[in-house]
Amino acid sequence: MTVISFKHSFVFVKTTKTAGTSIEVELSKVAGDDAIVTPIVPEVAGHAPRNYASADGSALFSGHMTAVAIHNLIGAKTFQQMHKFCVEREPVSKCISDFHMRRNSPVRNKDGKYRKDWPAYCAKGRFPIDLDKYSEKRGGARQVIVDELLAYEQLAQTLPVLLEKLGVQDFTLRARAKSEYGRNPLIEDKAVTNAERRRIYRAFLPTLNLTGMYPIDDELAGSSHPLLGYLSKWRPWARW
């Protein structure tokens, strides 16, 4: 899911398990008739995909596109002029949500073949890491190429403020798309073991090092990364 608004000059890059579908539903209502809005599967009421296909009907833009792919399609000049933003989420919470989607989504697990429990999910190590969505390697070093990363935990406060700066007044995130996947929880945060947390944080370490968004416990993460601020001190990474 991608939203590119020429009316308000923004690009929303969707990441995994960060309320991206809900955000896209609401953004599609205010982005303008000429906006590029990609389809959602399954369809969600109130969402209107448009302008994502070529003249022959083949899709040019698709869901979960990287910022690099969007840059290549709309051109460097337009990309640089627009405000690019996306959302990140605390790694363990993100993985719990991903696990429930894999187990409970009628699209991702329509045949019910995915039956891994939480320990098996952690052991497999296929976590929802989105670093490639909003960064690229330049001169051997990875750099963030969006203008703003919002913390999932603070979206209700930060997203309306950002969109107001972009000319979208009174924005409210009303949609709760796909929230049903976690209504019957198979694992809760308090049940995650230290070993499982350590495995998840090690996998997300490149993301945490680059963005600096979430606190890391040195012993738990098994790294020398400095301890970052607590939730009350989190700030979205921004060049704005």
Question: What's the short story on this structure?
Answer:
35% of the residues lie in helices and 12% in strands.
Beta percentage is 5-15%
Secondary-structure element pattern, one letter each: EEHEHHEHHHEEEHHHE
How many distinct beta strands? 8
**What structural category do the secondary elements indicate?**
alpha/beta
Backbone CA Rg: 18 Å
First-last Cα distance? 24 Å
Molecular shape: globular
**What kind of assembly state do the chains in view correspond to?**
single chain
Question: Average pLDDT across residues?
Answer: 85
Main traits of this protein?
240 residues, two-stranded antiparallel ribbon, 9 helices, 12% strand, alpha/beta
Description:
The chain is an alpha/beta fold and 240 residues long. It has helices at 20-30, 67-74, 76-81, 91-104, 118-124, 131-134, 155-165, 194-211, 218-221; strands at 2-5, 10-13, 36-37, 83-88, 135-138, 141-144, 148-151, 237-238. The strands form 2 sheets. Strands 3-1-2-4-7-8 form a 6-stranded mixed sheet. A two-stranded antiparallel ribbon has the order 5-6. 31% of the residues are buried.
Write the layout of secondary structure elements.
Layout: E1 2-5, E2 10-13, H1 20-30, E3 36-37, H2 67-74, H3 76-81, E4 83-88, H4 91-104, H5 118-124, H6 131-134, E5 135-138, E6 141-144, E7 148-151, H7 155-165, H8 194-211, H9 218-221, E8 237-238
Parallel strand pairs: 2-4, 4-7
Antiparallel strand pairs: 1-2, 1-3, 5-6, 7-8
